[in-house]
């Protein structure tokens, strides 16, 4: 018996009651590529075994259209994970596709040693989205590189070495970024960066501190001061944090947290980096950038994922006087500033503005969160519902009092949602947090479908 059978048996007598995906007039192309078995076998033999799939039976995805994905049989799924929070405005959004196709047919690559308009145009457009003064950008290919570069500039500019990050953070997998990343599950016992220290996570759900979320945020901010006093020479280069932790499971502190920490860092000679790889470009709904929800202005904004809607594009934006620190030596990135990636970024930013994507994240994020909170009231397994806009997390626990992580049950829920046509992600140290972060072009009907599917899926876990 499949999970879907169980879901149907438990929650509904008739198949007619199975949740139905909202209608969509896109017809996927017939797929005539290698079979799923052949792909699995090639991956097993020829690709690094660390590369993993999710789901017991791996899913072959061959086409995307806006918020939907299609497998090799033409079956449609509602994508509520967006290629790990990367497809911001929709799979194969026609305007982004056209911009990329036009550029790739004209000039694919030349590097920044020659002039091309797209590179400074995107930097200028980003500056228009930032607080005043944050207007100088370096483009990279990945979020890890952007974070590496921000830390490098912070160290060069301040003359200090130590960096404070937050426990449960994910900032990338390159040897330097891995030093910033916190969970042991991601850290290899090689490389890393010995001058990075992790302070207590201000997430109130699992904080070692008692009190209101605001009190927990203040106590967690004071932990940053303690880390500086006990683990550094008393001066720091930087503090880096995601306004809402992505891989960590949509955790975040109360609104006073970043403000208090930024003050402490600046008191100790450091600069503040906001890692907006997941939280940028309107995803948190009320604001374009995650840090704006916390009423702070960082010294660096790092970004990736959503800026390219799937193109390998990332960036670090800072102030000119800090950016100048990189001129002490030569620095070069072959694909940084690539005209095709820049064309993608320019189109994505235009679509976000013109199609009111941020407003959609705000309105539908609120609808989704309130639906999830309702499910929390009827399913004991839902320990916590958190997040902002279309960046939401649902933490699953075996017991609400002990908060024991419901690891295996999280996998069961994911299998069940997949069978019913909904793709979601997971995260958190124990992998027991459902990560719900769809392309920001979803509709109210998609939200209602997802809530219905989750309702049934929680019943099987
Ligand atoms: C918040 C955050 N920062 C940095 C990264 C690293 O980005 P990339 O995988 O593009 O190197 C990620 C990736 O998931 C991320 O979520």
Structural commentary:
It contains 14 helices and 15 strands. The chain is of the alpha/beta class. Strands 4-10-9-8-7-5-6 form a 7-stranded mixed sheet, sandwiched between helices. A 4-stranded mixed sheet has the order 1-2-3-13. A 4-stranded antiparallel sheet has the order 11-12-15-14. The longest helix has 22 residues. The two termini are 15 Å apart. Pyridoxal-5'-phosphate binds next to helix 6.
Topology of this protein?
Blueprint: H1 3-11, H2 36-46, E1 61-65, E2 68-71, E3 76-79, H3 82-85, H4 94-104, H5 118-128, E4 136-140, H6 143-158, E5 163-166, H7 175-180, E6 196-199, H8 213-231, E7 238-241, H9 257-267, E8 271-275, E9 300-303, E10 314-318, H10 320-323, H11 339-354, H12 357-378, E11 382-388, E12 391-396, H13 407-419, E13 422-423, E14 425-427, E15 433-436, H14 444-460
Parallel strand pairs: 3-13, 5-6, 5-7, 7-8, 8-9
Antiparallel strand pairs: 1-2, 2-3, 4-10, 9-10, 11-12, 12-15, 14-15
Helix pairs in contact: 1-14, 4-11, 5-11, 8-9, 12-14, 13-14
Descriptive key words:
461 residues, alpha/beta, 7-stranded mixed β-sheet, 37% helix, disordered N terminus
Summarize the biggest pleated sheet: 7 strands, mixed
Provide the list of bound ligands, each named once: pyridoxal-5'-phosphate
Strand content: 5-15%
The helix content, as a percent range, equals 25-40%
Along the chain, the helix and strand elements come as HHEEEHHHEHEHEHEHEEEHHHEEHEEEH
SSE class: alpha/beta
Show unreliable segments.
1-14
Q: State the end-to-end CA separation.
A: 15 Å
